[in-house]
Q: What sequence folds into this?
C-alpha cells in the first residue's frame, strides 16, 4: 500500500517534470546576501521571461559545485558563476559561453584582512608578518575568496598556504570570513572586496578589530554563462537575445540582487587568466 | 545483573550473548569502559588539537540576541520548507523500513550483511552529493540519500530484534518457506519493537532531511545554513525554532491511522524531479567516478594515482578521523551519564522537563552548527569537532537512557533509595548495560559524523571529500567515500564483536 503510492507518486513526478522541460531555467549565487533568493531572483526571472518570450524559472542552489552540476546536467541553461566556477562549468559543457559580466567584474579584487591584535599594518606589498599566522579563505571554490588570494600569496612568498600559515581554514562564505577574523578565530583572511565595502558601509564591521592590510591586483570575476545548445532549443538567435536582455537590465532593484551596477559584454577569452591561475595552483587539471 | 533494563523484548537469550569467562558482569563492563577511556586519552595526542584565544563575545551576543528575536519575513516559505522536511522524512522512512525488513530476512547471508553495512556507512550528505551529480536538486536525490543508508540501518536493527524473539511460535510453522516464517512468525511477534524503532528512526529522518538542505535540497536546513553562515541570526533562530517545534511535537501530530494520507500528501509536496538524462547517468558511473589512468587501461598509472591519494590525503585524514571519533565517543558517554538523570522524572521529580528540553535542543542542533559555536570559543582545531559530536550524541543517548529510567520506575520498591543514592546505587548500575550498548551503536555513527566535520576545515576524511567535490574531481571524491565506508564497516564489526564479548544485548531505542 505504502509502496504502491510511492511508485504512483514517482511516476507522477516524472510526468510533471516532462511537462516543464522547455522552460528556460537559470541559477545564480550572489557574492553577498543569499537570503530570500527565490523572491529576489524570481523578479529577474520575470524580467527575462518578458524580454525573451519564453517561460523563465529560477532555481536556488547552495554552492558553486551545485551550480556547476545543475548547468552540466542541463537542469539550468544559464548561470551566474564566479570566475573559477565559470571556467570549470565551461570545461564540462561543450559549446557553452560567457556572454556578460558585471561592470565591477572587469576589475575585481580581494582584500587581505587581519585582526588588529596581530598589529600588522596595511601596506602596498603583501606584509611579511602574515607568515606563521592562522589564515582563512572563503569557500574552497571561490575566485575572490580562494583562487586569486592563494595565487598572489604563492607568488609573493613562493610557498603554499599550508607551508606559510600555522593553520589554514575555509570559512565557506565572505561574511563569515569577516566575522571570524574580527572575532580572532583566525588572525588573517581573504575576502571579496565588494562584500567588505558593503558591510563597512552598513556598519556591520568593527574596524577597531579588523582591517584591510593588502589589496590584490585586479582580475576578472563573475559572469553569465549560457549553454551552447540554446539556439537549437529555444530558437535561432536566442543566445543573443539573452545577452541583450542582460545588458539592457537597468532596473536597480534587479541589479541589486547580484549586486552589480550593470552588466557588460564578456567572452570566454576574458577568463583565460583565471584558467591559467587555476591550473597553476592545481585546482584545475 | 542489569539485564532487566534492556530485555523488554519478549524471549531473549541468543547463544552468542551469553557472557563468557569468569569475571563478573560488572568487572567486564568496568574493564571495557576503562579501555575506551584509555584509547580516548591516547587519541587526544594524535588529534589536531590547539587552543586559541579568540574574542568571541561580540559574535555570541549577536547569536544570543538572534535566538530570542526570531524573525522570518515570509511565513509561507518557512512552512513549505517545513513540509518538505517532513515529506522527505516520511517517504524515506516508509520505503527504507520496507527494504530493511527484506534485508533483515536474509541477514544470515554474509553478502546481505556486508551490503547493509556498506550502504549505511556512507553519510546522508555524501549520498546526497553523489546523487545530486546525476539527479540534480530533485526529490529523487533527497529520497535516495535517506532511503539508502536508512535501509542498511533498519536491516541491522530489525535482524537484531528478530533474534530476540522467542522461536516457539515460528517452530509451529515448520516446513513453510523462509518468507512465510517471517511474515507469519517473526514479524508479528517483533512488530511492537519494530514499530517503536521506526518511530525513533522517523525523528532521525527529520534531522537527516533537514541537514540535506545544507547541500541545497529545499528543506529547513537550506534556510538555516544560509542564515547562520551569513550571520543573520534572527532568521537562523526562526528556522531553528520551527525545526525544534517540529521534532518536539511529533507525538502530537503523528497518527498511525493517518499514515497513508500523510504519505500521499508527502508525495504531492515533494519538489519535482527533472527528466534524467540516461547517457549522463551512464557517463557518471562509468567514467566520472574513475581516475583517468584506470579508464585508459594504464594500470601502473592508476596504482600511482591511488597511491598518491592514499599517502597525501587518506593517511593523515584517517588519523584525525579516528582520533576525533574515539575522543568524542568517550566524551559523549560521560555527558550522557551526567545528563540523563535530569531528564528522568523518577530521578529528579517534576522539573525533569527542563532536562528533557535541554536534551531536545542538544540533539536537534546540527553538529556542524555546534562545532561552529565551539570554534568561536576555542578557535579552529579538532577540539570544536570533539565537543560538538559529544554534545549531540551525548544528548541523544541521555534522552534514550532517561526514557529507560522512567519506564523502569514502575519496578521501584518501597525501600528504593532516593536522591544521589538512587542514581549511583540503583539506576546507574541498571542503566549501564543499555548505556554501553547504545554507545557501541553510536560508535559507527560518530565515526561517520566525524568524517563530516571535515567540512569545517578540520582535515578529516570529510574535508578531503568536500574539497574533491568543490574541485569537480568525482573520481577522488568517490575513492575517499569508499575509504570512509570501509572504515565504518570495520568499526561496525568491531563494535558487534565487543558487544557480544561483553554480553550486551540490542538496546531499545
A:
Amino acid at each position: 500500500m505504502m509502496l504502491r503510492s510511492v511508485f504512483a507518486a514517482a511516476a507522477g513526478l516524472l510526468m510533471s517534470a516532462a511537462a516543464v522541460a522547455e522552460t528556460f531555467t537559470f541559477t545564480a549565487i550572489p557574492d553577498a546576501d543569499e537570503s530570500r533568493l527565490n523572491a529576489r531572483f524570481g523578479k529577474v526571472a520575470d524580467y527575462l521571461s518578458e524580454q525573451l518570450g519564453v517561460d523563465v524559472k529560477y532555481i536556488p542552489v547552495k554552492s558553486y559545485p551545485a551550480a556547476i552540476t545543475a548547468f552540466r546536467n542541463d537542469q539550468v541553461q544559464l548561470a551566474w558563476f564566479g570566475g573559477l566556477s565559470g571556467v570549470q562549468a565551461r570545461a564540462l559543457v561543450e559549446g557553452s559561453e560567457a556572454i556578460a559580466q558585471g561592470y565591477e567584474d572587469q576589475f575585481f579584487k580581494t582584500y587581505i584582512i587581519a585582526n588588529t591584535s596581530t598589529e600588522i599594518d596595511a601596506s602596498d606589498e603583501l606584509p611579511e608578518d602574515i607568515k606563521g599566522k592562522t589564515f582563512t579563505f572563503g569557500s574552497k571554490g571561490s575566485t575572490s575568496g580562494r583562487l586569486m588570494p592563494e595565487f598572489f600569496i604563492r607568488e609573493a612568498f613562493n610557498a603554499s598556504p599550508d607551508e606559510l600559515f600555522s593553520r589554514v581554514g575555509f570559512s565557506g562564505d565572505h561574511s563569515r570570513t569577516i566575522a571570524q577574523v574580527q572575532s580572532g578565530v583566525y588572525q588573517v583572511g581573504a575576502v571579496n572586496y565588494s562584500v567588505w565595502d558593503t558591510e563597512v558601509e552598513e556598519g556591520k564591521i568593527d574596524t577597531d578589530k579588523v582591517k584591510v592590510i593588502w589589496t590584490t591586483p585586479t582580475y576578472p570575476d563573475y559572469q553569465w554563462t549560457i549553454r551552447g545548445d540554446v539556439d537549437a532549443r529555444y530558437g535561432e538567435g536566442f543566445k543573443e537575445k539573452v545577452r541583450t536582455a542582460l545588458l539592457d537590465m537597468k532596473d536597480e532593484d534587479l541589479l541589486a540582487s547580484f549586486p552589480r551596477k550593470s552588466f557588460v559584454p564578456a567572452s570566454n577569452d576574458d577568463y583565460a587568466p583565471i584558467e591559467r591561475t587555476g591550473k597553476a595552483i592545481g585546482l584545475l587539471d | 545483573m542489569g539485564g532487566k533494563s534492556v530485555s523488554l523484548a519478549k524471549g531473549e537469550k541468543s547463544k552468542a550473548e551469553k557472557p563468557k569467562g569468569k569475571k563478573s558482569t560488572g568487572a567486564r563492563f568496568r574493564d571495557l569502559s576503562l579501555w575506551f577511556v584509555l584509547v580516548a586519552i591516547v587519541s587526544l595526542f594524535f588529534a589536531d588539537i590547539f587552543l586559541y584565544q579568540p574574542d568571541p563575545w561580540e559574535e555570541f551576543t549577536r547569536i544570543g540576541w538572534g535566538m530570542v528575536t526570531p524573525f522570518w519575513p515570509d511565513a509561507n516559505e518557512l512552512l513549505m520548507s517545513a513540509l518538505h522536511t517532513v515529506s522527505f522524512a516520511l517517504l524515506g522512512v516508509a520505503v527504507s523500513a520496507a527494504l530493511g525488513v527484506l534485508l533483515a530476512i536474509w541477514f544470515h547471508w554474509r553478502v546481505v550483511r556486508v551490503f547493509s553495512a556498506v550502504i549505511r556507512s556512507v553519510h546522508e550528505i555524501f549520498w546526497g552529493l553523489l546523487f545530486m551529480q546525476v539527479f540534480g536538486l530533485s526529490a529523487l536525490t533527497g529520497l535516495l540519500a535517506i532511503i539508502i543508508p536508512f535501509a542498511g540501518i533498519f536491516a541491522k536493527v530489525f535482524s537484531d530484534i528478530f533474534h530476540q524473539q522467542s522461536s516457539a511460535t515460528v517452530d509451529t510453522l515448520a516446513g513453510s518457506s523462509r518468507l512465510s516464517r517471517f511474515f507469519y512468525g517473526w514479524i508479528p511477534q517483533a512488530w511492537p519493537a519494530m514499530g517503536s524503532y521506526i518511530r525513533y528512526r522517523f525523528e532521525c529522518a527529520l534531522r537527516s532531511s533537514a541537514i540535506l538542505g545544507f547541500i541545497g535540497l529545499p528543506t529547513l536546513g537550506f534556510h538555516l545554513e544560509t542564515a547562520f553562515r551569513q550571520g543573520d541570526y534572527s532568521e537562523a533562530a526562526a528556522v531553528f525554532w520551527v525545526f525544534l517545534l517540529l521534532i518536539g511535537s511529533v507525538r502530537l501530530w503523528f497518527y498511525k491511522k493517518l499514515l497513508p494520507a500523510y504519505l500521499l500528501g508527502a508525495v504531492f509536496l515533494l519538489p519535482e524531479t527533472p527528466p534524467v538524462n540516461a547517457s549522463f547517468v551512464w557517463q557518471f558511473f562509468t567514467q566520472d567516478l574513475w581516475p583517468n589512468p584506470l579508464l585508459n587501461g594504464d594500470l601502473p598509472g592508476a596504482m600511482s594515482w591511488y597511491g598518491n591519494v592514499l599517502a597525501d590525503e587518506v593517511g593523515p585524514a584517517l588519523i584525525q578521523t579516528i582520533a576525533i571519533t574515539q575522543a568524542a565517543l568517550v566524551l559523549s558517554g560521560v555527558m550522557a551519564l551526567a545528563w540523563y538523570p535530569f531528564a528522568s522524572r523518577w530521578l529528579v521529580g517534576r522539573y525533569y522537563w527542563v532536562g528533557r528540553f535541554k536534551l531536545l535542543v542538544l540533539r536537534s542542533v546540527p553538529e556542524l552548527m555546534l562545532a561552529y559555536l565551539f570554534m568561536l570559543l576555542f578557535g579552529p582545531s579538532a577540539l570544536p569537532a570533539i565537543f560538538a559530536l559529544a554534545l549531540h550524541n551525548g544528548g541523544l543517548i541521555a534522552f534514550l537512557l532517561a526514557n529507560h529510567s522512567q519506564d523502569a520506575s514502575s519496578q521501584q520498591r518501597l525501600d528504593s533509595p532516593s536522591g544521589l543514592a538512587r542514581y549511583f546505587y540503583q539506576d546507574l548500575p541498571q542503566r549501564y548495560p543499555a548505556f554501553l550498548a547504545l554507545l557501541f551503536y553510536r560508535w559507527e555513527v560518530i565515526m561517520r559524523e566525524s568524517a563530516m566535520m571535515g567540512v569545517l576545515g578540520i582535515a578529516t576524511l570529510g574535508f578531503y571529500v568536500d574539497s574533491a567535490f568543490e574541485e569537480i574531481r568525482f573520481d577522488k571524491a568517490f575513492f575517499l567515500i569508499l575509504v570512509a565506508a570501509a572504515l565504518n564497516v570495520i568499526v561496525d564489526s568491531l563494535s558487534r564483536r565487543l558487544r557480544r564479548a561483553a554480553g550486551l544485548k540490542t538496546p531499545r531505542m
About this structure: The two ends of chain A are 50 Å apart (CA to CA). Chain A has twelve helices and eleven strands. The first strand of chain A starts at residue 24 and ends at 28. Chain A has two domains: 22-105+220-280, 109-215.
